[in-house]
Amino acid sequence: MSTESAPKRRRVTRSPSPEKYYNLDESYEPYVPIAQRRQAKLAKLSSLGAASDKEKAKRAQEEADERADEEREEELRKEKARRERTLLMEAQEVHNRKAAEDAQKTEVEKAEEKDAEILAAIAARRKLASDLELAKGIQYTEPLKTSWRPPKYIRERPDEENRRLREKYHIVVEGEDVPPPIEHFQDMKIPDALLKFLKSKRISMPTPIQLQGIPVAFSGRDMIGIAFTGSGKTLAFCLPLIMFACEEEAKLPLVKGEGPVGVILCPSRELASQTYENILQWTDALSREGKYPRLNTLLCIGGISMSEQSHVLNNGLHIVVATPGRLIDMLEKKRFTFNNCKYLCMDEADRMIDLGFEDDVRNIMSFFKRQRQTLLFSATMPRKIQDFAQQSLIKPVLVNVGRAGAANLDVLQVVEYVKQEAKMVYLLECLQKTAPPVIVFSDNKNEVDDIQEYLLLKGVEAVAIHGSKSQEERQYAIKAFKSGAKDVMVASGVASKGLDFNDIQHVIIFSMPKEIEDYVHQIGRTGRSGKTGIATTFVNMNTPEQTLLDLKYLLMEAGQKVPPFLLTIDDPRAVQGGSLKGCPVCGGLGHSISNCPKLEDTQRRQMASHRSNVDTGGY
Ligand SMILES: Nc1ncnc2c1ncn2[C@@H]1O[C@H](COP(=O)(O)OP(=O)(O)OP(=O)(O)O)[C@@H](O)[C@H]1O
Description:
The protein is of the alpha/beta class. Among the domains are: 131-401, P-loop containing nucleotide triphosphate hydrolases (Rossmann fold, 3-Layer(aba) Sandwich); 411-569, Rossmann fold, CATH 3.40.50.300. Helix content is 45%, strand content 11%. An eight-stranded mixed beta sheet has the order 1-8-2-7-6-3-5-4, sandwiched between helices. Helix 19 links the parallel strand 11 and strand 12 (488-491). Helix 8 (192-200) crosses helix 11, helix 9 runs parallel beside helix 10 and helix 13 runs parallel beside helix 15. Bound molecules: adenosine-5'-triphosphate. Adenosine-5'-triphosphate binds next to helix 10. Pfam families: DEAD, Helicase_C.
């Protein structure tokens, strides 16, 4: 509306109207003068006074009820508080009692309790058996039967004589009805053709692990075989499989699509290749004279083309030597089956069962359709792994030559303190100690490459091998080194376990591995099959103290010279008066399970949280 067009009005001042200042809805209360209000109140009061006695009594009752309710609530509140106080006091008492008990416990006892808790958590691991067997509750109770028997004179030999023989060869056995030790290959009923071949390789008398292990395996028994590096374990588990395969082939020849009858599992491709080569030599020697059948063996490892071995798969297959990954792949693709497989051997078994491979092993076991003979071999086998493995074996026999994890006594161990920056130069000097071949170990792949480069620059013929190299590079390095074309092989842990190189003169450990078991395997590349060798190890302030302690005790156990800087390291357990048992997880003598380098940090953390959950009732 335009102000122009509106009619002009006179501005009038008026008192504000109720419409302007108040909202005229139900809430509007007109003004009541005070005298009028007093009048109304009096009237109301007098009407109240006139209320019936009944209503008064009712109101009084309600008030009494309310008061009673309040009192009851108050009582309950007090009772609850009293109970809470009692519980708190009890908890406090328990806490005080526990604190007093703890205060009385020595540090050693506390440490032992903690170790026991960690061990219990490890023991709770799932049994090492196929999921199918576990699910169906299949449990075999008797070992497999074989037709092999020792000669009569050995069968009739008194137990006392068997015990004496074991003592003579430092063999410790555990288990029921352990088959007798046999001192001569001939008495093991090994075919002449094979004996002749072994003799040509200067293998004429069985080593301790062979003289007890082969009769155990020939008898069809499950076994755990532990003996130091280079003591001939490979023959001890391959020979029984070869003889078993011969027997099966003689009974009913295998045709395409049938077999294998036995499998050997290895933790690395290199070790599997080496075992495969050995089996080829031994089976060739057997069949050469025509009395024994030709056996087909398949190498089943990653990084190689399987089509090259199609001729093996086109015939009946007797033996498979494999690494877990490729084996599972082949089984899943049904390139062969384990329907008739009755022999499973795991070389370097502690590694196979160890955290990384445990599930693969279970998976592989689930492909077996019938009872099998299971054998586990290694130079290092901590008690905990032995116990764990034993639950999965049927009436197993433990054959132990020397302490599991002990160093080979044929290796002269030298430990030197070398500053980090001086290592390369000192390595050159060290290489002069012996003639080639020499292996240099470092667990760091980059360091392996650096060392090789440095040696090549200095004119040393060196090859290198580690897990990041291609399979061809790895094969080339091993071939060149084995053939003597190269003097030095620089290697990471991959080459340490089980590899059998001819007459290694010297092993140089450029970087001390954290786990003492790895050290034992690494120095074990020299001093094999009765020869002697030298191992030089560089340590410095980067080497963890507990590793140095493990090393110190290992040197002492092997009667080696302990350098002064190792002698000065005190063992906290000894200082506290604790017992100096080997770690049940890695076998290291210088620490307990709670600071075992092998128990990975994450696992330790998991266990700690398990413990605190139990402590606080958190489950
Ligand atoms: N009875 C024997 N007499 C002499 N030499 C043997 C005998 N048995 C095996 N050897 C030789 O000893 C060497 C080491 O054998 P093998 O590789 O089986 O040792 P290992 O115990 O498996 O060692 P590692 O623990 O390092 O794997 C091989 O060269 C093998 O030919």
